[in-house]
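Course exercise 7: structure representation. Students receive a sequence record and must write out the corresponding structure in token form. The form below is the worked example handed out in class, using Glutamine amidotransferase (204 residues). Read each field label carefully; the graders check that inputs and outputs are placed in the correct fields and that the protein name is recorded exactly as given.

STUDENT ID: A-19
EXERCISE PROTEIN: Glutamine amidotransferase
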Amino acid sequence: MTTSTAHIALYDTLADWEIGHLLVELRTGRFTGTPWNVVTVAESAEPITTMGGLRVLPDMVLADLEPGASGLLVLAGAAMWDEGGGRAWADAARRFLDAGVPVAAICGATAGLARAGLLDDRDHTSAAVEYLTSFDGYHGKDRYVDARAVVGGDLITAGPDSPVQFARATLSRLGLAPERTLQAYEDVFHGADASAYPALVGAH
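STUDENT ANSWER:
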């Protein structure tokens, strides 16, 4: 059986905490029983520095990334999104969505997709609807959902305060765990509910 691959976008000031839960669950498969390859992608081969100060050397460059070789594109927040950057990543997200490959975007990355018009026809969320309406190019207010994380077809979105819900929604969209397992996951890692842990570790 071929192991699926998740491609993780890298850029300076990447918000480490927003995608940490998701990456661990994808790579280890500790609660799903299905580990994935996690491959990092940047616009150049140079290392990037995350918001938390980690220097990360990308595995590959964006120019070589093809949706057909991927099972997921993950876009974290970063300073560049609020500064109007990220066009190359929004273009990549469009290619993935057009090919039917899921895209998971959190925090500032949702702004980049909003400017590109990729949220206009899909259910989505973000930090707040006012955050998205402050950007030119966004006409998706009617599809905004006030929730911690939202699955809108092949697009998963969340705000910066919801990394656990972001992980849960993405794992759900990928079909990696049943809802009872995902609820236990959120109960443990968001709600600090120790009573849910047996259900989580006994999931598979």
